[in-house]
Design goal:
alpha/beta, Alpha/beta knot, 20% strand, globular
């Protein structure tokens, strides 16, 4: 078996990406400190044709060389918007019929593998700060949480890993 060359992968151009039908999922990054994490989330969002990324609070915005280092140009393809306040974005999306879920460990969280997105419904997933996670106020506003099951000694995953897992899970469930 032979490794494929980049030109054999038949990837979209930025213009084709912008015109392509999107996965009905938005990501909300709330108070993300690491520019590398932000860039990595952009890159994963590009891979799965995510509709939009909302950058909130202290989360840095493109253009920035440290975001670009891991995004590898995905900040040019994936739509994004900045808001100082995460609650404004959540309420705006909810008022437009978007189902907003926090990705967090809570008393009544739904385990990711049991989550089944509804067809013809747009979603948004909130990813929180690397140390504090998603705030209680945001959890209360969302009203619903998804949790990635974990079985080791650590109680959390890196935000970029979390984003990759939930994006892949959502994408595969919506495409099948």
């Amino acid at each position: 078996m032979r490794k494929l060359k980049n030109e054999e992968l038949e990837r979209k151009t930025i213009d084709e990406f912008k015109k392509a039908s999107k996965t009905p999922l938005n990501l909300i990054l709330d108070d993300i400190r690491s520019l590398n994490n932000i860039g990595s989330v952009f890159r994963s969002a590009d891979a799965f044709l995510i509709k939009k990324i909302y950058l909130c609070g202290i989360t840095a915005t493109p253009p920035h060389r440290d975001i670009h280092k891991t995004a590898l140009g995905a900040t040019d393809s994936v739509a994004w918007e900045y808001s100082k306040t995460v609650l404004e974005i959540i309420e705006k999306l909810q008022n437009n019929g978007v189902s907003v879920w926090a990705i967090e460990q809570t008393e009544k969280s739904m385990i990711l593998n049991k989550f089944q997105p509804k067809k013809n419904t747009e979603y948004a997933f909130v990813l929180g700060n690397e140390v504090r996670g998603v705030s209680q106020e945001v959890i209360n506003t969302c009203g619903q949480t998804l949790e990635i099951p974990q079985f080791g000694t650590k109680h959390s995953l890196n935000i970029s890993v979390t984003a990759g897992l939930v994006l892949w899970d959502f994408f595969t469930k919506m495409k099948h």
